[in-house]
Amino acid sequence: MNRACVRRVFQHSVQEIDFSGNIAVDAEWLAYLGSFRYLGILKLADCKKVDHSAIWALSGMSMLKELDLSRCSRITDAGIKHIVSIDSLEKLHLSETGLTDNGVMLISALKGLNLLDLGGIHMTDKALRSLQVLTQLEHLDIWGSEITDEGASILKAFTRLRFLNVSWTHVTRLPPLPNMKYLNMSNCTIYSIRGGDSEVHIPLQKFTASAASIVDVDEVFSSIVASSFSFLDMSGCSLSNLYGLQKMKSLEHLDLSLSRVTDDAIEYVANIGMKLRYLSLKNTGITSQAPWFTCVEANSEKILSLPLLEHLIYLESLNLEDAPLSDEVIPPMASFRALKYLYLKSDFLSDPALHALSSASNLIHLGFCGSVLSNSGLLQFVPPAQLHVLDLSGCWVLTEYAISSFRSHHPMIELRHELIQELQPSHIGTSQVRKSRHLPRAKTKVFNSSADSSRHSGIFFMDQRIKYSREKMLEIQDLTQSNSVLHDVQLPPELRRME
């Protein structure tokens, strides 16, 4: 259908058009859209041919409520002159465009805006001050700008503000914003989110402070109304004090990944409350020695339990990737009956840890990456009934035989591993194995395919690597990661690449 037909058929009925990412949309297209007088929402994000001259066709559209020009890099200050003629606009997205302070200041004419996205624009305090007349704003996104504490002080003029993103700016202190629900200060140095007024408490629901430097954690936490606070992302922060966390009884999402949280801080995490559904401790200092693992005696045997976390009965997702956990701490994790997503990655995990998770009845996604899992360990694993994804990336001891066999026995489970690409579907629907050029293989005996298969019904392939200790295999793994090292090292015959 050509453009003329589009106009005749839809110009009196279409209320929303989404051309996001369409590289064909240009000035000619917008000229046709300019006649769509009932159009309420127009999304042109990532349309690289749209420039200031193309926007001219939208001038004066009386019904347009939302315009998205995000990442249209050819939109400049000249284009804003056309946009401000659209008095009906309530939502305007201009992130990562070519605007300067001059263009931003023109936006002050759009008094009806309740959402303004200027992320990635190098605007200054001067431009932000010009926008304080936009008293209807509820959502303001100015990440990556040159705003400082001086400019941020005028944010108190936005009395309806509920969402604020000042990540990657020079802002360290915010004035009291009594209606704030969502705040993003990632990659900022944070002193205060309430202007130092200890009498003010912010009813935050979501706080993202990824890679931020929080000078006074207690001050920040004490600023927040705990009863409404449900989402906290402090990934990549240098944290030494998590005492304030134990007051956050309504938290449902807590991300402490890539932080410096250690075993000593785990008690505060455990005291958060039973509403917690998502917990990430990926790449932290948590170890098997954390106090949440307690040794108890049952039937004359010593086993580990998780008394500190027993009250987290709604925990659905737990990420402990790159935490150096060992086999004995995994069985208690199967006791989380609501757990659906578990992510583990440790060189110290092996067959017993995987087998212990068979009883995690509600698991949907299990990551068991980088472990020393053997072929027999995989084939003897009884997956939980609900399991959809088993990620074994980095389990380098496994061979194509074990992976292919597991997939044949459990076709409904998506198995992830580097060797999956080596498996090719055959014409009869089974899997055939290609020779890998990337990983060392174990030599195996191959039986004559023309022989009677019944003679070998009880025979299976044996991975010769199982006779090596875990420490020896890890030592060999380290050696194989450098070709320069391999020139001078003779691997055992069983670990040499098959030619």
From TrEMBL:
UniProt cross-references to InterPro entries, sorted A to Z: Leu-rich_rpt (IPR001611), Leu-rich_rpt_Cys-con_subtyp (IPR006553), LRR_dom_sf (IPR032675), Zyg-11_UBL_adapter (IPR051341)
Q: Which SMART domains match?
A: LRR_CC
Source domain of life is Eukaryota
Residue ranges of coiled coil: none
Write down the SUPFAM superfamilies for this protein, in alphabetical order: RNI-like (SSF52047)
List the protein's name. Uncharacterized protein
Q: Organism classification, top ranks? A: Eukaryota, Viridiplantae, Streptophyta, Embryophyta, Tracheophyta
